[in-house]
Write a structure and sequence with these properties.
Elements lengths: L7 H15 L7 H7 L9 H21 L3 H14 L6 H20 L5 H8 L14 H7 L3 H17 L5 E6 L6 H11 L8 E8 L3 H17 L4 E7 L18 E7 L2 H4 L3 H14 L3 E5 L10 H22 L4 H18 L12 H8 L2
Parallel strand pairs: 1-2, 1-4, 2-3, 4-5
Protein backbone atom coordinates (compact mmCIF):
# COMPACT_ATOMS: atom_id res chain seq x y z
CA UNK A 1 0.00 0.00 0.00
CA UNK A 2 1.41 3.38 -1.05
CA UNK A 3 2.22 5.82 1.73
CA UNK A 4 0.22 9.04 2.01
CA UNK A 5 1.57 12.02 0.12
CA UNK A 6 3.34 14.47 2.41
CA UNK A 7 2.08 18.05 2.57
CA UNK A 8 4.24 20.98 1.56
CA UNK A 9 4.48 21.95 5.23
CA UNK A 10 5.85 18.51 6.11
CA UNK A 11 8.32 18.60 3.23
CA UNK A 12 9.48 22.06 4.28
CA UNK A 13 9.96 20.86 7.86
CA UNK A 14 12.24 18.07 6.60
CA UNK A 15 14.07 20.59 4.40
CA UNK A 16 14.67 22.92 7.36
CA UNK A 17 16.00 20.08 9.51
CA UNK A 18 18.27 18.87 6.70
CA UNK A 19 19.54 22.35 5.95
CA UNK A 20 20.42 22.97 9.60
CA UNK A 21 22.91 20.09 9.32
CA UNK A 22 24.66 21.50 6.25
CA UNK A 23 24.19 25.27 6.60
CA UNK A 24 27.71 25.72 7.94
CA UNK A 25 29.24 24.56 4.66
CA UNK A 26 31.21 27.40 3.11
CA UNK A 27 30.58 26.14 -0.41
CA UNK A 28 27.09 24.84 -1.06
CA UNK A 29 25.90 23.49 -4.40
CA UNK A 30 24.10 20.50 -5.90
CA UNK A 31 27.11 18.27 -5.29
CA UNK A 32 27.12 19.09 -1.58
CA UNK A 33 23.34 18.68 -1.45
CA UNK A 34 23.46 15.22 -3.01
CA UNK A 35 26.23 14.22 -0.63
CA UNK A 36 24.45 15.20 2.58
CA UNK A 37 20.79 14.53 1.69
CA UNK A 38 19.38 11.15 0.66
CA UNK A 39 15.59 10.98 0.41
CA UNK A 40 15.67 7.19 0.21
CA UNK A 41 16.82 7.01 3.83
CA UNK A 42 13.61 8.83 4.82
CA UNK A 43 11.41 6.56 2.67
CA UNK A 44 10.48 9.48 0.44
CA UNK A 45 9.21 9.23 -3.11
CA UNK A 46 11.30 10.60 -5.95
CA UNK A 47 9.07 13.66 -6.33
CA UNK A 48 9.13 14.35 -2.59
CA UNK A 49 12.92 14.14 -2.52
CA UNK A 50 13.17 16.58 -5.42
CA UNK A 51 10.82 19.02 -3.67
CA UNK A 52 12.87 18.84 -0.46
CA UNK A 53 16.10 19.38 -2.36
CA UNK A 54 14.54 22.42 -4.04
CA UNK A 55 13.38 23.78 -0.68
CA UNK A 56 16.91 23.31 0.73
CA UNK A 57 18.31 25.28 -2.20
CA UNK A 58 15.87 28.11 -1.42
CA UNK A 59 16.85 28.07 2.26
CA UNK A 60 20.53 28.14 1.28
CA UNK A 61 19.88 31.07 -1.08
CA UNK A 62 18.23 33.07 1.68
CA UNK A 63 20.98 32.17 4.12
CA UNK A 64 23.71 33.37 1.76
CA UNK A 65 21.72 36.52 1.00
CA UNK A 66 21.31 37.20 4.72
CA UNK A 67 25.09 36.96 5.07
CA UNK A 68 25.52 39.38 2.13
CA UNK A 69 27.07 36.69 -0.06
CA UNK A 70 25.16 37.93 -3.08
CA UNK A 71 27.14 36.11 -5.77
CA UNK A 72 26.74 32.74 -4.06
CA UNK A 73 23.06 33.43 -3.35
CA UNK A 74 22.51 34.36 -6.99
CA UNK A 75 24.02 31.10 -8.22
CA UNK A 76 21.77 29.10 -5.88
CA UNK A 77 18.77 31.08 -7.12
CA UNK A 78 19.72 30.12 -10.68
CA UNK A 79 19.21 26.51 -9.61
CA UNK A 80 15.92 27.40 -7.90
CA UNK A 81 14.69 29.12 -11.06
CA UNK A 82 15.69 26.14 -13.20
CA UNK A 83 14.02 23.55 -10.93
CA UNK A 84 10.89 25.47 -9.92
CA UNK A 85 7.79 26.40 -11.92
CA UNK A 86 4.52 28.19 -11.34
CA UNK A 87 2.67 25.12 -12.64
CA UNK A 88 4.26 22.32 -10.58
CA UNK A 89 3.86 20.99 -7.05
CA UNK A 90 3.10 23.26 -4.08
CA UNK A 91 6.80 23.46 -3.22
CA UNK A 92 7.80 24.16 -6.81
CA UNK A 93 5.21 26.91 -7.19
CA UNK A 94 6.08 28.51 -3.87
CA UNK A 95 9.84 28.43 -4.54
CA UNK A 96 9.13 30.02 -7.92
CA UNK A 97 7.68 33.12 -6.24
CA UNK A 98 10.11 33.27 -3.32
CA UNK A 99 13.01 33.01 -5.75
CA UNK A 100 11.69 36.05 -7.62
CA UNK A 101 11.55 37.99 -4.38
CA UNK A 102 15.06 37.02 -3.33
CA UNK A 103 16.37 37.87 -6.79
CA UNK A 104 14.83 41.32 -6.59
CA UNK A 105 16.38 41.87 -3.16
CA UNK A 106 19.82 40.94 -4.49
CA UNK A 107 19.39 43.24 -7.50
CA UNK A 108 18.41 46.12 -5.24
CA UNK A 109 21.31 45.50 -2.86
CA UNK A 110 23.87 45.33 -5.66
CA UNK A 111 22.45 48.24 -7.67
CA UNK A 112 21.24 45.98 -10.44
CA UNK A 113 17.50 46.62 -9.96
CA UNK A 114 15.73 45.88 -13.22
CA UNK A 115 13.25 48.20 -14.90
CA UNK A 116 10.64 45.45 -14.49
CA UNK A 117 11.08 45.48 -10.73
CA UNK A 118 10.83 49.27 -10.60
CA UNK A 119 7.66 49.26 -12.70
CA UNK A 120 6.20 46.56 -10.46
CA UNK A 121 6.76 48.70 -7.34
CA UNK A 122 5.44 51.85 -8.99
CA UNK A 123 2.28 50.02 -10.03
CA UNK A 124 1.51 48.79 -6.51
CA UNK A 125 -1.95 49.63 -5.19
CA UNK A 126 -2.37 51.60 -1.99
CA UNK A 127 -4.51 48.73 -0.74
CA UNK A 128 -3.46 45.58 -2.64
CA UNK A 129 -6.37 43.48 -1.36
CA UNK A 130 -8.52 45.44 -3.81
CA UNK A 131 -6.85 43.47 -6.60
CA UNK A 132 -9.30 40.68 -5.77
CA UNK A 133 -12.13 42.95 -6.93
CA UNK A 134 -10.87 42.58 -10.48
CA UNK A 135 -10.73 38.78 -10.45
CA UNK A 136 -13.17 36.76 -12.49
CA UNK A 137 -16.32 35.93 -10.45
CA UNK A 138 -15.67 32.22 -10.98
CA UNK A 139 -12.25 32.60 -9.36
CA UNK A 140 -13.78 34.51 -6.47
CA UNK A 141 -16.23 31.65 -5.96
CA UNK A 142 -13.34 29.18 -5.88
CA UNK A 143 -11.38 31.28 -3.38
CA UNK A 144 -14.38 31.29 -1.06
CA UNK A 145 -14.06 27.51 -0.73
CA UNK A 146 -10.85 27.88 1.25
CA UNK A 147 -11.52 26.65 4.80
CA UNK A 148 -10.01 29.65 6.60
CA UNK A 149 -12.12 31.99 4.44
CA UNK A 150 -15.29 30.10 5.27
CA UNK A 151 -14.55 29.95 8.99
CA UNK A 152 -13.70 33.63 9.38
CA UNK A 153 -16.62 34.66 7.20
CA UNK A 154 -19.09 32.55 9.20
CA UNK A 155 -17.77 33.88 12.51
CA UNK A 156 -17.98 37.48 11.32
CA UNK A 157 -21.49 37.16 9.90
CA UNK A 158 -22.73 35.36 13.02
CA UNK A 159 -21.41 38.18 15.21
CA UNK A 160 -23.12 40.76 12.99
CA UNK A 161 -26.46 38.96 13.03
CA UNK A 162 -26.41 38.78 16.82
CA UNK A 163 -25.56 42.47 17.17
CA UNK A 164 -28.34 43.67 14.82
CA UNK A 165 -30.96 41.13 15.88
CA UNK A 166 -33.64 43.78 16.51
CA UNK A 167 -32.69 46.18 13.70
CA UNK A 168 -34.93 46.42 10.66
CA UNK A 169 -32.47 48.62 8.78
CA UNK A 170 -28.79 47.71 8.62
CA UNK A 171 -26.00 49.87 7.21
CA UNK A 172 -22.92 47.76 6.37
CA UNK A 173 -19.79 49.90 5.87
CA UNK A 174 -16.92 47.96 4.33
CA UNK A 175 -13.45 49.48 4.19
CA UNK A 176 -12.20 46.57 2.05
CA UNK A 177 -15.17 45.42 -0.06
CA UNK A 178 -13.12 43.37 -2.53
CA UNK A 179 -15.49 40.75 -3.99
CA UNK A 180 -18.33 41.49 -1.56
CA UNK A 181 -18.32 37.91 -0.31
CA UNK A 182 -19.07 38.86 3.28
CA UNK A 183 -22.06 40.90 2.09
CA UNK A 184 -23.56 37.93 0.26
CA UNK A 185 -23.16 35.76 3.36
CA UNK A 186 -24.79 38.49 5.45
CA UNK A 187 -27.71 38.69 3.00
CA UNK A 188 -28.29 34.96 3.25
CA UNK A 189 -28.39 35.19 7.03
CA UNK A 190 -30.72 38.20 7.01
CA UNK A 191 -33.04 36.51 4.50
CA UNK A 192 -33.72 33.69 6.96
CA UNK A 193 -34.42 36.04 9.87
CA UNK A 194 -38.20 35.81 10.25
CA UNK A 195 -38.80 37.28 13.71
CA UNK A 196 -37.58 40.70 12.59
CA UNK A 197 -37.67 40.90 8.78
CA UNK A 198 -35.09 43.19 7.24
CA UNK A 199 -36.55 46.34 5.68
CA UNK A 200 -33.35 47.71 4.18
CA UNK A 201 -29.74 46.61 3.81
CA UNK A 202 -27.50 49.50 2.84
CA UNK A 203 -23.90 48.78 1.87
CA UNK A 204 -21.26 51.48 1.62
CA UNK A 205 -17.95 50.46 0.06
CA UNK A 206 -14.91 52.62 0.77
CA UNK A 207 -11.92 52.50 -1.55
CA UNK A 208 -8.93 54.38 -2.88
CA UNK A 209 -8.83 52.81 -6.36
CA UNK A 210 -10.88 50.68 -8.78
CA UNK A 211 -14.13 52.61 -8.47
CA UNK A 212 -15.68 50.95 -11.52
CA UNK A 213 -14.80 47.49 -10.24
CA UNK A 214 -16.44 48.27 -6.91
CA UNK A 215 -19.55 49.43 -8.76
CA UNK A 216 -19.59 46.10 -10.60
CA UNK A 217 -19.40 44.37 -7.23
CA UNK A 218 -22.38 46.50 -6.15
CA UNK A 219 -24.36 45.38 -9.19
CA UNK A 220 -23.69 41.73 -8.40
CA UNK A 221 -24.76 42.29 -4.80
CA UNK A 222 -27.93 44.07 -5.94
CA UNK A 223 -28.87 41.10 -8.13
CA UNK A 224 -28.25 38.74 -5.24
CA UNK A 225 -30.33 40.88 -2.88
CA UNK A 226 -33.17 40.96 -5.39
CA UNK A 227 -33.12 37.17 -5.64
CA UNK A 228 -33.44 37.00 -1.83
CA UNK A 229 -36.14 39.70 -1.80
CA UNK A 230 -34.05 42.02 0.38
CA UNK A 231 -34.45 45.80 -0.13
CA UNK A 232 -30.95 46.96 -1.00
CA UNK A 233 -28.89 50.11 -1.56
CA UNK A 234 -25.24 50.30 -2.56
CA UNK A 235 -22.94 53.32 -2.40
CA UNK A 236 -19.28 53.81 -3.22
CA UNK A 237 -17.15 56.30 -1.27
CA UNK A 238 -13.82 57.13 -2.88
CA UNK A 239 -10.97 58.72 -0.95
CA UNK A 240 -7.44 59.53 -2.03
CA UNK A 241 -6.16 58.05 1.22
CA UNK A 242 -7.88 56.41 4.17
CA UNK A 243 -6.64 59.25 6.39
CA UNK A 244 -9.22 61.39 4.58
CA UNK A 245 -12.15 59.27 5.77
CA UNK A 246 -14.89 61.02 7.79
CA UNK A 247 -18.29 60.06 9.13
CA UNK A 248 -20.21 62.57 6.96
CA UNK A 249 -19.34 60.50 3.87
CA UNK A 250 -21.69 57.66 4.83
CA UNK A 251 -25.25 59.09 4.68
CA UNK A 252 -26.10 57.75 8.13
CA UNK A 253 -29.66 57.60 9.45
CA UNK A 254 -30.79 57.40 13.07
CA UNK A 255 -33.04 54.38 12.46
CA UNK A 256 -30.30 52.09 11.09
CA UNK A 257 -27.85 49.81 12.87
CA UNK A 258 -24.34 50.50 11.62
CA UNK A 259 -21.82 47.72 11.05
CA UNK A 260 -18.17 48.36 10.24
CA UNK A 261 -16.07 45.70 8.56
CA UNK A 262 -12.50 45.56 7.35
CA UNK A 263 -10.96 42.29 6.24
CA UNK A 264 -7.17 42.22 5.92
CA UNK A 265 -6.94 46.01 6.00
CA UNK A 266 -4.83 46.56 9.11
CA UNK A 267 -1.91 44.78 7.48
CA UNK A 268 -1.61 47.87 5.25
CA UNK A 269 -2.40 50.60 7.78
CA UNK A 270 -0.90 49.65 11.16
CA UNK A 271 2.29 51.50 10.28
CA UNK A 272 0.37 54.53 8.98
CA UNK A 273 -0.65 56.43 12.14
CA UNK A 274 -2.72 59.02 10.27
CA UNK A 275 -4.87 56.35 8.63
CA UNK A 276 -5.42 54.51 11.89
CA UNK A 277 -6.25 57.70 13.74
CA UNK A 278 -8.83 58.64 11.11
CA UNK A 279 -10.47 55.21 11.20
CA UNK A 280 -10.58 55.15 14.99
CA UNK A 281 -11.95 58.71 15.12
CA UNK A 282 -14.75 57.77 12.71
CA UNK A 283 -15.56 54.64 14.71
CA UNK A 284 -15.80 56.66 17.93
CA UNK A 285 -18.04 59.28 16.35
CA UNK A 286 -20.37 56.79 14.66
CA UNK A 287 -20.40 54.26 17.52
CA UNK A 288 -21.43 51.29 15.35
CA UNK A 289 -23.29 48.26 16.67
CA UNK A 290 -20.26 46.11 15.89
CA UNK A 291 -16.84 46.31 14.23
CA UNK A 292 -15.67 43.13 12.50
CA UNK A 293 -11.93 42.85 11.94
CA UNK A 294 -10.32 39.90 10.12
CA UNK A 295 -6.54 39.58 9.97
CA UNK A 296 -3.87 36.90 9.66
CA UNK A 297 -2.27 35.77 12.93
CA UNK A 298 1.33 35.96 11.74
CA UNK A 299 4.27 38.33 12.05
CA UNK A 300 5.78 39.72 8.84
CA UNK A 301 7.19 42.87 10.42
CA UNK A 302 10.65 41.82 11.59
CA UNK A 303 13.38 44.26 10.58
CA UNK A 304 15.73 41.29 10.28
CA UNK A 305 15.58 39.74 6.82
CA UNK A 306 16.24 36.15 7.89
CA UNK A 307 13.47 36.24 10.53
CA UNK A 308 10.99 37.83 8.14
CA UNK A 309 11.87 35.35 5.39
CA UNK A 310 11.52 32.37 7.75
CA UNK A 311 8.11 33.52 9.03
CA UNK A 312 6.88 34.24 5.51
CA UNK A 313 8.09 30.87 4.22
CA UNK A 314 6.25 29.04 7.01
CA UNK A 315 3.03 31.01 6.42
CA UNK A 316 2.93 30.71 2.64
CA UNK A 317 3.87 27.02 2.74
CA UNK A 318 0.63 26.46 4.65
CA UNK A 319 -1.21 28.79 2.26
CA UNK A 320 -0.05 26.89 -0.82
CA UNK A 321 -1.09 23.65 0.90
CA UNK A 322 -4.60 25.04 1.36
CA UNK A 323 -4.77 26.03 -2.30
CA UNK A 324 -3.52 22.61 -3.39
CA UNK A 325 -6.19 20.83 -1.35
CA UNK A 326 -9.14 23.16 -1.95
CA UNK A 327 -8.79 24.60 -5.46
CA UNK A 328 -8.36 23.31 -9.00
CA UNK A 329 -6.18 24.88 -11.69
CA UNK A 330 -7.55 28.30 -10.70
CA UNK A 331 -5.12 28.29 -7.79
CA UNK A 332 -2.34 29.23 -10.20
CA UNK A 333 -4.19 32.41 -11.17
CA UNK A 334 -4.73 33.35 -7.51
CA UNK A 335 -1.05 32.72 -6.80
CA UNK A 336 0.14 34.70 -9.80
CA UNK A 337 -2.23 37.63 -9.42
CA UNK A 338 -2.08 37.94 -5.68
CA UNK A 339 0.23 35.80 -3.54
CA UNK A 340 3.28 36.35 -5.74
CA UNK A 341 3.14 40.10 -5.13
CA UNK A 342 2.70 39.58 -1.39
CA UNK A 343 5.74 37.31 -1.18
CA UNK A 344 7.86 39.66 -3.26
CA UNK A 345 6.92 42.67 -1.15
CA UNK A 346 7.52 40.95 2.19
CA UNK A 347 10.83 39.41 1.12
CA UNK A 348 12.35 42.04 -1.16
CA UNK A 349 11.02 45.50 -0.30
CA UNK A 350 12.88 47.97 1.87
CA UNK A 351 11.26 48.83 5.19
CA UNK A 352 9.62 52.01 3.89
CA UNK A 353 8.27 50.18 0.82
CA UNK A 354 6.75 47.18 2.61
CA UNK A 355 2.97 47.34 2.56
CA UNK A 356 2.16 43.83 3.80
CA UNK A 357 2.82 44.05 7.54
CA UNK A 358 0.88 41.31 9.25
CA UNK A 359 1.22 41.31 13.05
CA UNK A 360 0.30 38.99 15.88
CA UNK A 361 -2.82 39.95 17.82
CA UNK A 362 -0.90 41.17 20.87
CA UNK A 363 1.01 43.59 18.63
CA UNK A 364 -2.13 44.82 16.86
CA UNK A 365 -4.15 45.66 19.96
CA UNK A 366 -2.29 48.83 21.04
CA UNK A 367 -2.72 50.29 17.57
CA UNK A 368 -6.45 49.63 17.26
CA UNK A 369 -7.66 50.34 20.79
CA UNK A 370 -10.80 52.48 20.54
Amino acid sequence: MASAKLSAASLMEIARASFSNISSLECFDLTALNKFFDGALLNLSGDESKDIELAILLLASADKLGNLQFDHAGKLLNLCDFLSTNAGSSIQRMVHYFSKGLREKIDAATGATTSMARESREGELSHPDETLVSLNPALITCSLKLPFVQVTQFAGVQAIIESVASAKKVHFIDLAIRSGAQCTALMQALATRHECPIELLKVTAVGTTLQNKMKETGKRLACFAEALNIPFLFNVVMVTDLKDISEDMFELNDDEAVVFSFRFLLRHTLTQPECLESIIRVLKNINPSIVVVTEYEVDHTSATFTERFSEALCFYTAFFDWLEDCMDQNKRIIESAYLGDEIRNIVAAKDEDRIFRDMKIEEKQPGIAV
